């Protein structure tokens, strides 16, 4: 899940000249290694503060680095642009020492005069935090991910102790703070490049033609077609094995597979489940799979009738035959969900008893709520394949049929992916399908990001627009302690409140599948659903 604001208004973003693949992505020459990733959709933003979908994260991750990063191999936070850090005993002061060898990309008319320093870190956070910052209102941003994590209230100060040292002081302890800093919104951009764009009078270009310190540099973006990158030889981690990287935007899963089999693409996400036997039978392909850190759900907008009544929310939840839906949509690659957290998280409350599939009781609840004849509603569904939902349209059709049996007349609605997300986060829907894959592995990334009172504002990540004082107290208290046992207890209690109030209908947790060609070397599935190509190579 996730959404955005203004941003990529121009369909092509030139950032210099490199040798690009020809029409149809013909095989590159022997002199260069170009990997083509068949992406499932358009990145709606390429600037880190705007991004809210994994589709955008995938296109941003090659270009930018963060102070710290999540290491999938060890499941820990490790150094990134900060080579080390310390945390004060009271958990309020984080001091980061920056590496000396990180340099920013350049363009034909911008050449960085220095390496990364503390000024860049301050710029990247203060832009999102301070309303008087010269870039705060550039591109019409509202910095929703920053706000959904409660960063404005959490941060007390950010200081440059010296050119290599940055000190964050918090207003309260925050257990997931380091994990949060590994996320895309916390990517470090160039203050010098921002100043250059201000002097030119084109500050919006800063977000449309972003420069980072990452292993690849953005070359161009053509909506509906490609995102192109070239290797950055001066990256502090060394030049990546690939010379260039191309995202071939291919929404249809069957088309993605055809491209992969023909050699037009090397890596594709989210194959149709019906195509898995075909993939496994192809000697040129490798099928990869892992249990997803995800949940798919239908969110009720509790600020709109009839879903302002918990009896209606419970009735609709009891009318949906989740077991049949999961069997039809996921087969053996999914399981029914009962909580907002996936079972892969340490705070999952397995003692929760799910609402049963009980249409008769659903009818009784509707009558009790004043809807003896049912009601009409819109049911929104995603227009694209997601790792947590392989076929949203078919799932919506099945739910519509179930709802008709209790007198609820659902009209299906969808839209362009970026528009869909924006409208869902603004609260335009009555009921809508969506999902979430963890961005950092902490339960807070589900329960606070998706269900806090802060996130219930228009544009926020709480698409139920639900603000429950009991739930809020529990998740806020859980953020403020590093005692894992206490956090677990608090999150278990929060899931009990969630189940009682039913702001969502949790639908499923899924397996995630990737397909790669045999010549691809070093590709690893990421637990948070990202597609990372830093260490990937190709056999010639």
Report on the structure:
The chain folds into 3 domains: 1-63 and 214-284 and 518-540, Periplasmic binding protein-like II (D-Maltodextrin-Binding Protein, domain 2, 3-Layer(aba) Sandwich); 65-194, Dipeptide-binding Protein, domain 1; 294-512, Dipeptide-binding Protein, Domain 3 (Dipeptide-binding Protein, domain 3), CATH 3.10.105. The chain has helices spanning 54-60, 118-129, 144-148, 151-154, 177-180, 191-200, 205-208, 253-262, 276-281, 310-319, 322-330, 359-368, 392-404, 417-426, 444-451, 469-479, 484-501, and strands at 34-39, 68-71, 76-79, 82-87, 93-98, 155-162, 165-170, 216-222, 226-231, 244-249, 267-269, 285-291, 294-300, 334-336, 375-380, 408-413, 431-437, 504-517, 520-521, 537-538. The chain is an alpha+beta fold and 540 residues long. The chain starts with 33 loop residues before the first strand and ends with a strand. It is 28% helix and 21% strand. The longest helix is centred in the last third of the chain and has 18 residues, at 484-501. The strands form 5 sheets. Strands 11, 12, 13, 14, 15, 16, 17 and 18 form an 8-stranded mixed sheet that branches. Strands 1-10-9-8 form a 4-stranded mixed sheet. A 4-stranded antiparallel sheet has the order 4-5-7-6. Helix 10 (310-319) packs antiparallel against helix 12 (359-368). Residues 1-29 have low confidence and may be disordered. The protein is built from 17 helices and 20 strands.
């Amino acid at each position: 899940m996730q959404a955005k604001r203004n941003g990529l208004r121009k369909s092509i973003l030139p950032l210099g000249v490199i040798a690009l693949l020809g029409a149809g992505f013909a095989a590159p020459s022997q002199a260069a290694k170009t990997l083509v990733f068949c992406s499932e959709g358009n990145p709606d933003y390429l600037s880190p503060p705007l991004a809210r979908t994994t589709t955008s994260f995938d296109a941003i991750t090659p270009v930018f680095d963060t102070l710290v990063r999540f290491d999938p191999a060890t499941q820990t936070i490790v150094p990134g642009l900060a080579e080390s850090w310390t945390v004060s005993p009271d958990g309020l002061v984080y001091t980061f020492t920056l590496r000396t060898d990180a340099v920013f990309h350049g363009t034909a008319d911008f050449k960085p005069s220095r390496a990364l320093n503390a000024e860049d870190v301050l710029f990247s956070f203060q832009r999102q935090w301070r309303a008087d910052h010269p870039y705060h209102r550039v591109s019409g941003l509202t910095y929703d991910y920053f706000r959904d994590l409660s960063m404005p209230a959490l941060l007390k100060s950010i200081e440059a102790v010296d050119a290599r040292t940055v000190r964050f002081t918090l207003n309260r302890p925050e257990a997931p703070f380091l994990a949060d800093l590994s996320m895309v919104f916390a990517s470090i951009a160039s203050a010098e490049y921002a100043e250059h764009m201000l002097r030119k009078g084109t500050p919006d270009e800063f977000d449309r033609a972003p420069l980072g310190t990452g292993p690849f540099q953005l070359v161009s973006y053509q909506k509906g077609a490609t995102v192109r990158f070239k290797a950055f030889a001066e990256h502090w981690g060394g030049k990546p094995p690939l010379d260039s990287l191309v995202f071939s935007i291919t929404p249809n899963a069957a088309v993605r597979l055809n491209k992969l089999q023909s050699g037009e693409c090397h890596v594709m996400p989210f194959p149709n489940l019906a195509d898995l036997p075909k993939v496994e039978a192809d000697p040129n392909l490798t099928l990869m799979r892992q249990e997803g850190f995800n949940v798919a759900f239908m969110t009720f907008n509790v600020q709109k009738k009839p879903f302002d009544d918990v009896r209606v929310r419970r009735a609709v939840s009891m009318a949906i035959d989740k077991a049949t839906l999961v069997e039809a949509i996921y087969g053996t690659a999914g399981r029914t969900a009962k909580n907002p957290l996936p079972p892969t998280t340490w705070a999952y409350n397995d003692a929760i008893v799910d609402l049963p599939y009980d249409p008769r009781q659903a009818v009784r609840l509707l009558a009790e709520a004043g809807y003896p004849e049912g009601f009409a509603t819109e049911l929104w569904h995603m227009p694209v394949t997601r790792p947590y939902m392989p076929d949203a349209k078919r799932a919506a059709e099945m739910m519509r049929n179930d709802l008709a049996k209790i007198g609820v007349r659902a009209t299906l609605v969808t839209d362009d992916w970026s528009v869909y997300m924006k409208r869902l986060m603004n609260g335009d829907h009555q009921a809508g399908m969506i999902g979430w894959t963890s961005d950092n592995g902490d339960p807070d990334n589900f329960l606070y990001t998706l269900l806090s009172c802060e996130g219930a504002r228009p544009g926020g990540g709480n698409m139920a627009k639900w603000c429950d004082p009991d739930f809020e107290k529990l998740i806020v208290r859980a953020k403020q302690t590093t005692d894992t046992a206490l956090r677990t207890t608090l999150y278990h209690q929060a899931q009990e409140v969630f189940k009682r109030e039913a702001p969502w209908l949790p639908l499923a947790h899924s397996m995630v599948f990737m397909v790669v060609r045999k010549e691809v070397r070093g590709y690893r599935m990421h637990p948070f659903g990202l597609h990372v190509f830093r260490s990937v190579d190709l056999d010639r």
